[in-house]
């Protein structure tokens, strides 16, 4: 079996420069079907830049990104989304003055046939406990529920790879539990996978199958949660700080 068949997402020797600043350098990683893959590191480690390159919002300076066996064109987010790679954003991605229902419906427009969109909206809302709020204006909801709306929008698109940028920020314990349950269920269906950037280390260690650690834009370590937690380089660069905060 080829590497492309084994990997849903493959990032090969990707670098991204902004003038003289190297934000990401020679990054290699792969996400396999059916797994939750964590991308962690201190602030400024290059996580957001990596996410933007993978999802097509930035073109790599060098290297390539392959998704479902096909090279993704750099800097074309629409192509990534239509191929089945859908992302959320760190500060939420929803329309404040629209209803929860219409927000979630936005997620269905690119990939879901018109006749199936209503069912996808209901399914996503039910998964995230938003059914009773479908007619509420999204901007009027508490912050935690707004974050759930952003996740529901992405799930409604039925992506093959769901890329989540700090989805647990601002959520209470009950909401965190809901999101982790949804993510576990999502990746268990049809070989779907999740790429997760998150600062909640307790959640990352609980839900991720494998974790990739960045530091100053470069690879630091990769492994399962136990290996990462016990890696001296990771403890020195990141986990000691994260656990102390």
From TrEMBL:
Report the transmembrane regions from the record: none
In its UniProt entry, what is this protein called? Answer: ABC transporter ATP-binding protein
Output the CDD domains linked to this UniProt entry.
ABC_Mj1267_LivG_branched (cd03219)
**Keywords from the named record:** ATP-binding, Nucleotide-binding, Plasmid, Transport
Species of origin: Antarctobacter heliothermus
Q: Tell me where in this chain the ABC transporter domain is found.
A: 9-241
Q: Which gene encodes it?
A: livG
Which PROSITE patterns does the annotation name? ABC_TRANSPORTER_2
InterPro entries according to UniProt: AAA+_ATPase (IPR003593), ABC_AA/LPS_Transport (IPR051120), ABC_transporter-like_ATP-bd (IPR003439), BCA_ABC_TP_C (IPR032823), P-loop_NTPase (IPR027417)
A single GO CC term for this protein reads:
plasma membrane
At the top level, the lineage of the source is Bacteria
- Gene Ontology MF terms in the entry: ATP binding; ATP hydrolysis activity
* Alphabetical list of SMART domains matching this protein: AAA (SM00382)
């Amino acid at each position: 079996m080829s590497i492309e068949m084994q990997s849903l997402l493959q990032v090969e020797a990707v670098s991204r420069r902004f003038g003289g600043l190297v934000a990401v350098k020679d990054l290699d990683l792969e996400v396999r079907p059916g797994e939750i893959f964590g991308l962690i590191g201190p602030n400024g480690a290059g996580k957001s830049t990596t996410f933007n390159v993978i999802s097509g919002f930035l073109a790599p300076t060098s290297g390539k990104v392959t998704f479902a066996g096909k090279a993704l064109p750099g800097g074309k987010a629409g192509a990534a989304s239509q191929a089945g790679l859908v992302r959320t954003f760190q500060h939420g991605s929803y329309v404040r003055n629209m209803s929860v229902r219409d927000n979630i419906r936005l997620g269905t427009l690119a990939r879901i046939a018109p006749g199936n969109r209503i069912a996808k909206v209901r399914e996503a809302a039910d998964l995230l406990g938003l059914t009773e709020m479908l007619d509420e204006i999204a901007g009027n909801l508490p912050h935690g529920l707004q974050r759930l709306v952003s996740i529901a929008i992405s799930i409604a698109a039925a992506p093959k790879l769901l890329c989540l940028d700090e989805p647990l920020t601002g959520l209470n314990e009950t909401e965190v539990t809901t999101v982790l349950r949804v993510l576990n269920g999502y990746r268990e269906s049809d070989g779907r996978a999740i790429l997760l950037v998150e600062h909640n280390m307790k959640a990352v260690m609980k839900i991720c199958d494998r974790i990739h650690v960045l530091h100053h834009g470069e690879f630091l370590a990769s492994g399962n949660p136990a290996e990462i937690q016990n890696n001296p380089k990771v403890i020195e660069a990141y986990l000691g700080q994260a656990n102390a905060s």
